[in-house]
Amino acid sequence: MNLNDEVIAIKGIGPKKAEALRRIGICKIEDFLYYYPRDYQDRRQIKKIRELENGSLALTAGTVNSKIKGGYGKKQILRLLITDESGAMEVIFFNAQFLVNKFEMNRQYVFYGKAAVEYGKTKMVHPEFFTNEQENICGIIPIYPLTAGISQADMFKWQAIAVGMVNQQLHEHLTQELIEKNKLCDLGYALSNIHFPQDKNHLKAAKYRLIFDELLFLQMGLLSIKNRITTEEKGIVFHKNIDVYEFIQMLPYALTNAQKKVIQEINDDMESEKVMNRLVQGDVGSGKTVVAETALYKAVKSGFQGVLMAPTELLAKQHYEGLSQEFSKHGIRVGFLSGSMSAKNKKDTLQLLAEGEIHILVGTHAIIQPNVKFKNLGLVITDEQHRFGVNQRNLLTEKGKNPDLLVMTATPIPRTLAVIVYGDLDISIIDELPPGRQKIITTAVEQGNRGKAYSFVKQQIQEGRQAYVVAPLIEESESLENVISAQELHEQLQKEFYNMEVALLHGEMKQADKDCIMQKFYDGHIDILVSTVVIEVGINVPNATIMVIENAERFGLAQLHQLRGRVGRGKHQSYCILISHGKSSISKERLKIMVSTSDGFVIAEKDLELRGPGEFFGLRQHGLPELKLADLMRHITILNIAKKDAKAILEKDPKLLSHEMAEIRHKIIKFFGENAVLSI
User: Fold this and answer.
1) Of 119, 148, 233, 428, whose CB has the highest number of CB atoms within 10 Å?
2) How far apart are CA 448 and CA 452, in angstroms?
3) Measuring CA to CA, how many Å separate 438 from each of 459, 537, 570?
């Protein structure tokens, strides 16, 4: 057997188990090695029964002294009396019809589980159990995240097979110089001890090495992308004599200083000889759209086409309508493209685009299809970056001769993280709101005052306004008490607001159904829209003035801020009501922050402090590889070391073509995907 073989080569893995493993990313035997435990159980010491403490997870052993069955069928209960020289304990199994014959009288077994000690009596309910003859029951035991059809015992057995092949078949991908410089253990040692650690020090060394690898590959991939961008010559030249301020002067409002600063940065990039690759961060309502419009104006007036890609069809339509209205005064034609268009409309649009008759194209993911051809693409803009991946951005920029790229996001990201994660982009920040924008009045309400909150919602709707009501779950969950689902909430509010139109929206609906409901809400035919977080990025509904968020304690601050930003887009005063069931001091502190500030960047920093980057910042949603062990902030020291090493390696060997870099090159391409790291 070889590490490169399909998992089905392992005895005991048939097609069903192979499919279950494929669902969790394990296709080849080598993939087991990089499927890390989520936790460990310390089973190095077998305790006597009398040493067991109430509530503790422990390993103990004893002899079956008595075996009592009760109940029938699936409701059978098995009670065992287990004794050792120190005392006795009761072991209870429910649904025990398959376990009755597993235990022999007067035979010794080893049990691992949570002990309950009350009034001098000890018991365990549903512990794991082993015979003394079974191997690998003691030590530091790995616990893996699982999927249906795979057990811990299965995973333990297969991981042992994969780890057993490490020393003979696995190639070290770091140079000896890098290993010695950073005092790293070798790769075989790391992978063996991440799965089956000899002790806690071995586990610590293994984790450090594997975290270093992840952060090194992340930084090398990002730096490679940036190197490609900064060394590539533009295939286009934007005219320096196109004055975007001619466009700005025709606007019916004045720009903020922050908008002017960012427009100048973009203008300088567009006039430079290097390709622009810029991220514009702006809080909700900071005026990012007009910044994008000035860049599009400059591109078109220089003789090039522009494209703006949005994550949803409704948002793309809203951009299309806004841009069409604004640019019609300047003789600039805007086109629209989406997956739901009729074949004829699509064909006509594609033809006009290829002929250069459409100057600016607005659309969804349909824009990156191979049949979409531009005559002279000069500028690519993506809206709400965290809905797109690096690969999608690359597919779009490949449609022109190295066009400029502008990425717009309304999700404030703390700069400490932004410079790491958007290592391939220059960053501009619009940190000022236009004057006169009304502040959204935010209130935190405890569950006991929920009725008053909805009385206020009713009053606002009677005055002609509309409301969003957000729940954290789609369906009711047995495992989560006091957490309301969108479906439950929809039923409740339909009864309570029986003379009003109440609709439900959630992520499991078909896109066409979601768009239909949002369009009805936009047109004023729905009074209350009950939703999950799918409305976090959505169209502007100026008449929606109330955002109610149920179980607000279950959302991150940054997410609460994004949801709040759905209102406050019209002329009427807007409100955000945070209904909380949380009693903890952290829950109260988070909601206090939401009530006290509307600055998205302040909120993002606080969110990072309170939740940590693991929860705050999922790399995958930003189009980058998911880190399995590394945490961008908790491991900031290792990250900085990895970043310095990545820079030094790429300065010496920019395309990683030397023999000693072959393994690293292969790993980075596998880590990022072929399309992302085009420079190596």
Assistant:
1) 428
2) 9
3) 20, 20, 9
pLDDT band at 424 (very low <50, low <70, confident <90, very high): low
**What's the CA gap between 173 and 622, in Å, rounded?**
27
Three-class DSSP category at 290: helix
Sign of the CA dihedral running 29, 34, 36, 42: positive
All structural domains of the chain: 45-137 (2.40.50.140), 244-430 (3.40.50.300), 441-597 (3.40.50.300)
Left if phi > 0, otherwise alpha if psi is -120 to 50, otherwise beta: which for 262? alpha
Rounded to whole angstroms, how far apart are CA atoms 63 and 84? Answer: 7
Say if residue 420's pLDDT is above 70: no
Question: Which residues lie closer than 8 Å to 67 by C-beta, 6 or more apart?
Answer: 78, 79, 80, 81, 100, 103, 105
**What amino acid is encoded at 153 in this protein?**
A
- DSSP single-letter state for residue 161: H
- How long a stretch of residues is the chain? 680
In whole angstroms, give the CA distance from residue 100 to residue 579.
49
Q: What is the C-alpha separation between 94 and 77, in angstroms, rounded? A: 5
The SS3 assignment for 549 reads strand
Pairing of strands 377-383, 334-337: unpaired
**418 close to 429: Cβ distance less than 8 angstroms:** no
Alpha carbons 519 and 290: distance in angstroms, whole number: 24
Decide which of 291 and 604 is more confident. 291
Task: Give the separation between CA 9 and CA 460, rounded to whole angstroms.
Answer: 65
Specify which residues 140 forms β-bridges with. Answer: 42
Torsion of CA 550, 551, 555, 558, to 10 degrees: 50
Angstrom distance (rounded) from CA 463 to CA 460: 5
Residues 452, 68: Cα–Cα separation, whole Å? 56
Please write the tens of the pLDDT for every residue from 146-196: 888 888 889 999 999 999 998 888 889 999 999 999 999 999 999 999 999
What is the DSSP code string of 487-515? HHHHHHHHHHTTTS-EEEE-TTS-HHHHH
Buried b (16+ CB within 10 A) or exposed e, 343-352: eeebeebbeb
Within 8 A by CB and 6+ apart from 296, the residues are 306, 308, 323, 327, 332, 360, 379, 381
**Do 107 and 10 contact (CB within 8 A), yes or no?**
no
CB neighbours (10 Å) of residue 328?
11
Question: What phi and psi values does residue 453 have, to the nearest 5 degrees?
Answer: -60, -45
Neighbours of 73 (CB within 10 A): 7
State the Rg of the chain over Cα. 30
Sheet with 528-531: strands ordered across:
441-446, 575-580, 544-549, 466-470, 528-531, 502-505
CB 382 within 8 A of CB 357: no
Q: What is the sign, positive or negative, of the torsion defined by CA atoms of 263, 264, 269, 272? A: positive
> What 3-state class would DSSP assign to 678?
coil
Which residues fall within 8 angstroms of residue 341, CB to CB, at 6 or more apart? 349, 366
Q: Could you give the maximum distance between any two Cα atoms of the chain, in Å?
A: 95
Alpha-helical runs (H) found in 511-564:
511-522, 557-564
Condensed to tens digits (0 to 9), the pLDDT of residues 11-57 reads: 999 999 999 999 999 999 999 999 999 988 888 888 999 999 999 88
Residue 291 pLDDT exceeds 90: yes
Neighbour tally for 152: CB within 10 Å: 14
Distance CA 154, CA 556 (A): 36
